[in-house]
Specification:
alpha/beta; single chain; 5-stranded mixed beta sheet; TIM Barrel; 304 residues
């Protein structure tokens, strides 16, 4: 069992690196990748053998970099890069988690004041080093029934992910906020991964608004992506089947993972997602063993 999409406390997960490795060991995973948002600090921590040796399986370098496409916020997964080269690009092009939360807070506040959303700034409290400004905002604005008219989707009132994906990141929503100024462009994001020696995959296509899935072929045809995340916790069997078909038709690589965040994302269990996630090792072993063997720690993934 493998999982190529997991987060630690270096971004927005609730498990630190050691705790995540212990979870992977307990669940008997053979290969993992830590893909924190816009940071690779976990991979520098893994250089410590006292931490790394807690997990007997293989670990491949990973990251989830935030960018935008036609105004909508999306993510690109990078795998198999040199961590020193990647850190150089991150220093020059990517905001730290804290910097991003503070700037995002100001963008949301300005936009929501402009359109007449009711909120009291004194009630919006969050630690920008570890907490999301978006979540702090939605907890405040949903207190006032007068704000419900702004929500495009009722799910957005009950779930943090719904608010993020359906409202803040969705250009069709009245609560949309253009965050393109906070992130490197899609072209630059892919370039950073490639120049660091890695491969670039579009993360969880169907987790975004339908704008992205409907435009998937245009994204593939116009940007130098290496693959797609085909196996994901919330995907239906039909969605996974479609993405596998696209990858085979376009000669692209496949990856997959639970998007594990510990207690901060329910039912995204490491390796199994909601309980039935299955990532076919044969679909990912070729690009891992053939393209980036030097960036796998401990042991190599072998075909069944």
């Amino acid at each position: 069992m493998i999982d190529l999409h997991a987060h630690t406390t270096f971004s927005d997960g609730s498990y630190n690196v050691l705790e995540l490795l212990n979870e992977a060991q307990k669940n008997k995973l053979s290969l993992i990748s830590i893909t924190d948002h816009n940071t690779i600090q976990a991979h520098f921590e893994l250089l410590n053998p006292n931490i790394r040796n807690k997990f007997e399986g293989a670990i491949i370098t990973g990251i989830e970099i935030t960018t935008t496409y036609k105004g909508e916020t999306i993510e690109i997964l990078g795998y198999g890069f040199d961590i020193d080269k990647m850190q150089h690009f991150l220093n020059d092009n990517v905001l730290t988690f804290e910097e991003k939360q503070l700037k995002e807070y100001e963008l949301i506040k300005k936009q929501y004041k402009k359109i007449g959303v009711i909120f009291d700034e004194k009630n919006i409290q969050f630690d920008p080093k570890v907490e999301s400004s978006r979540i702090a905002f939605v907890h405040e604005i949903k207190k006032y029934s007068q704000n419900y008219k702004f929500f495009l989707n009722q799910e957005s009132i009950t779930t943090n992910t719904g608010f993020t994906r359906n409202e803040v990141y969705n250009p069709k929503s009245p609560l949309y906020v253009d965050e393109s100024s906070l992130f490197p462009s899609l072209e630059k994001t892919i370039e950073m991964i490639h120049q660091s020696g890695g491969l670039a995959f579009l993360a969880h296509t169907f987790a975004y608004s339908s704008n992205i899935s409907n435009d998937l072929l245009n994204i593939i045809n116009n940007y130098d992506l290496d693959g797609l995340e085909c196996f994901y916790t919330t995907f239906t069997a039909e969605q996974t089947k479609y993405l596998i078909h696209v990858c085979k038709e376009k000669n692209m690589y496949m990856c997959g993972g639970s998007d594990f965040h510990g207690s901060r994302k329910k039912n995204h269990n490491l390796g199994t997602g909601h309980g039935n996630l299955h990532i076919d090792e044969n679909e990912v072993s070729d690009w891992i063993t053939n393209y980036i063997p030097n960036f796998i720690q401990k042991k190599s993934l072998t075909k069944k």
